[in-house]
Input
Amino acid sequence: MTSAVLAQEELTRALSIRDLSDPAHGPHAMQLVVAAVVDKLTEAWRCPASLHRASPIISVQQNYERLCVPAESRARDARYTRYVDANTVLRSSVTAMVPPLLDRLSTDMPADNVLLAPLGLVYRRDAIDRLHVGEPHQMDLWRIRRGAPHLGTADLQRMVGLVADVIAPGAQVRTTPTNHPYTLDGRQIDVLANGQWVEIGECGLAHPELLASAGLSPTTWSGLAMGIGLDRAVMLAKGIDDIRLLRSADPRVAEQMRDLAPYRPVSRLPAVRRDLSLAVAPGADAESLGDRVREHLGDRAVAVENLQVLSETPMERLPPQAVERLGIRPGQVNLLVRLVLRHPTDTLTAEAANVLRDEIYGLLHAGSVHQWASPVSFAA
Output
């Protein structure tokens, strides 16, 4: 596991991000999606719901061990998880809140049938594109029930239908097999939107070992588990195709983020595309590069629509002229990266795009020779 930890300024920035799902941070359409989903399930199941929020700084043990994540899992690597120190992280999923909630149920069960709904921001290192962000919102939905018959796959499929009907009414839904260490019969949930399959969450049957570790006997207790990406849920509910709009400060956009009415586009500005040829250390990918760009640019990262790795070539396979042009060193690899710049609401001039391109290029390129697009050099 990579041992890198967050710098203090990175931690401060992460903790200052507004939680759009929390009414205490001001109204947002995301809160309406949360209420609609919870109401739909509690009405169908005739059970109480318990929404939970908690500090995003948690122990490695709670984030991983209690969810049975293997020690060798690459998810634990600091390329994908934000470590505060060797023993604590910024939670990578709200599922980390579930084991402590199950602990409480074993000693203080309010009913034989309950919906647990932990929610809030989660913190990951992710690619930059129109569907991903480094600090997405997530809500887990765990139905925990005592008694026979045990909840099974038919109950799980019904749950998928109920939730999808709220998020994307009338849309085609599919589930495909996936694995979670804390569920059985894990499934990924996708809906068809504008001709494209979009993942909205994952689900499965609560793993008997997870229940048992909380003092809930699997012979008596059973459960359904689902995690929903709330950002994408709002995008589908309102017909938004760019995740950056959810946090837009433009009054024409922000006012529309207070309800679930269909989104009315403010503008369609042209994209600026730049292909970057980079010399980097092996192992760099869209997620790690995207996270570096986000951290470096801060609020200005809103102008970066997409950062995609097109190809990777070891230095040894490059022609001599390419080695000279890049200033690439032994042990490095050459990545061809496509950078798409487009601010969601403001015009980006060609000059401003070139300056931003050069700043990102200077941040990522580790070769000794640079190819600048603007007269302003970022070599310093």
